[in-house]
């Protein structure tokens, strides 16, 4: 049998519990003899506090050198708190805090956020994936604390026609614009259908609000119809996001791939994590045509950093997504099976009302992954 080529991974441990769950997860690579070379680099809150840049130049260079990136949880804070955390020498010098994940997604053009949702704590009753657009929608950056001069005439016309809002000038209102481009929607929908095809899903559901956002939704629906014609063997439909949220809770087994614009996808993907059992089980992938990075969805939880309390499962599942992306499917499957086995045992962290620490749960997952890896290869799992 030919040995797979060694892949190079940039590891960004992150902040808070991100660093420790990363540390406790990585030994599975050696345990399963996975052909990966790791290069570590810095990202996050400490970088910001030291140099006013949460993603240093050296980190961008490391990302470019490697095949893909594994990211631990990182800390983001509002503008006022971020500016206050800078050293005095950097305050007022034009440094602006931008979330590291936003920088990665935008600079690497990672337009698809992939969030698998599986019945880890149950009996495999459901398996679906939320695919969220990463670069447009209401998170496109067109968010204004007052009404821009270019938009003011439009609002005045609407007010003359009897608009229901009240304001007193441009400073008396704020506005956010939902941007959807043809190119952005084509690549999003094509990715969703391709993902469904590759992962044996039979239906793609577009989550939107067509009964309210009539024109932008109709624009997206027309493009969806065009792309869906390329995949005639996969069914598709359009549903209101609020209805999808209800049915994700009531009947999650009815879904295959759910695809949505940025904010709607953000909401549904976290709801999916709740259905799984919490953010401690929620992995994610951020994928573009030429780059990708993988991160657990939970936050950095600085209050719990160093206390051996965080659930490492999401980081193991994130590593599994990374391995699957690289074609290392045997190891990816073994890690996923191990997480499921341990999650259903009494060896649980505090978020699942357990008494075991991060390290102990991670070690149990690694031991189980070794068993599944060997058993799967012998065909006896």
TrEMBL record:
Pfam families: Iso_dh (PF00180). Keywords: Oxidoreductase. InterPro entries: IsoCit/isopropylmalate_DH_CS, IsoPropMal-DH-like_dom. The keyword Oxidoreductase applies. Residues 8-365 form the Isopropylmalate dehydrogenase-like domain. Gene3D superfamilies: Isopropylmalate Dehydrogenase (3.40.718.10). PROSITE patterns: IDH_IMDH (PS00470). Belongs to the isocitrate and isopropylmalate dehydrogenases family. This is Isocitrate/isopropylmalate dehydrogenase family protein. The lineage of its organism: Bacteria, Pseudomonadati, Pseudomonadota, Gammaproteobacteria, Enterobacterales.
